[in-house]
Amino acid sequence: MPLTKRLSAEFIGTLWLVLGGCGSAVLAASFPNLGIGFVGVSLAFGLTVLTMAYAIGHISGCHLNPAVTFGLWAGKRFPANEILPYVIAQVLGAIAAAGILYVIASGKPGFTLGGGFASNGFGDHSPGRYEALACFVAEVVMTFFFLIVILGSTHKLAPKGFAPIAIGLCLTLIHLITIPVTNTSVNPARSTGPAVFVQGWALTQLWLFWVAPILGALLAGFVYGWLVGDDDGGVTETVVVTEEISVEDVLDEMA
Fold it and tell me: Distance between CA atoms of 199 and 202, rounded to whole angstroms?
C-alpha cells in the first residue's frame, strides 16, 4: 500500500479516535441526568479503536498513536524510516479532531475551555489530583500493557481476526483504571489535540504524555520480542490480522 494512502488512513483513524473518545468526554460524560460517565467514555475510546481497526487495519495497520508506532518498531513490526511520517499524520488527525470538537462544543451557551476540554494533566490538573510521579508511572505501565496486548493479539500464532476486539477492550480497561489519574492518555497524539486548544497548563504538561507512553511502548516492544523469541517479529507492520480462507480450504478442513 503506498505511503500516502497509509498516512491518510492514519490521519482519518486518529481523527476518529480523538473525536469519538474526547468527544464523549466533552459532550456526553456529564450531560444532565443522562451523562455516560467514566464507563461511557472508556467504552467510547475502546470502540473507536475497535471500529477503525477493522476499517483501516489492512491499509495502515491502524496505529492511531505515536506510542504504538514506536512500540511496533521496537517489536520488529515496523520500519524506522516510516516512524516520523506516521507520527505527523497521527498528530495532525488529533488536532483536526479537536478542532471539529471545539466547533461543536462551543455551540452550547456557556461553553468554556476552562473545563479542560478532555486534556490530560497531573497535579492540580489531574481529575483526582494525582502528583506527577504517580501519573508518569500510570502512563508507562498502562501503555506497556496496551502494547503487550497489541503485539500478542497480532502475532502470527494468535487467533486470526480477533485482534481489534482484544485491543479495543484493553483500551477500554485502561481508561476505566486511569481516567481519575491522568484523564488517560497512553497516546501522545490524543493528548496533543486538545492541548493545542486549551494551551497554557495543557501544553506545559504535555511532555509527560509524550515521554511516558513512548517509554512504556518501547519497553513492551523489547520485552515481547524477548518473550516470544521472534527474529521476524511475527506480523509485519499491520495491527489487524486478517486471513483469507477459500472454499477449498474449508472443505479440506471439514474432510
Answer: 5
**Amino acid in position 78:** F
Q: Which of 235, 35, 89, 221 is nearest to 154 (CA)?
A: 235
Q: Which three cell numbers stand for residue 164?
A: 481489534
Q: Mind listing the domains of the chain with CATH numbers? A: 3-254 (1.20.1080.10)
Split at pLDDT 50, 70, 90, the class of 210 is very high
One-letter identity of residue 108: K
Counting runs of H as helices and runs of E as strands, what totals does the chain give?
10, 0
C-alpha R_g of the chain: 18
Owner of C-alpha cell 512500540: 71
Contact call for residues 10 and 86 (beta carbons, < 8 A):
yes
Please check whether residue 14 is in contact with residue 189, taking contact to mean a CB–CB distance below 8 angstroms.
yes
Query: In this predicted model, what pLDDT tens digit does every residue of 126-148 receive, in sequence order?
Result: 999 999 999 999 999 999 999 99
* Closest residue by Cα to residue 175 from 221, 210, 143: 143
Check pLDDT > 60 for residue 234. Answer: no
The phi, psi pair for 105, rounded to 5°, reads -65, -35
pLDDT tens for each residue of 166-203: 999 999 999 999 999 999 999 999 999 999 999 999 99
**What letter represents residue 38's amino acid?**
F
**CA pair distance 221, 20, nearest whole angstrom:** 27
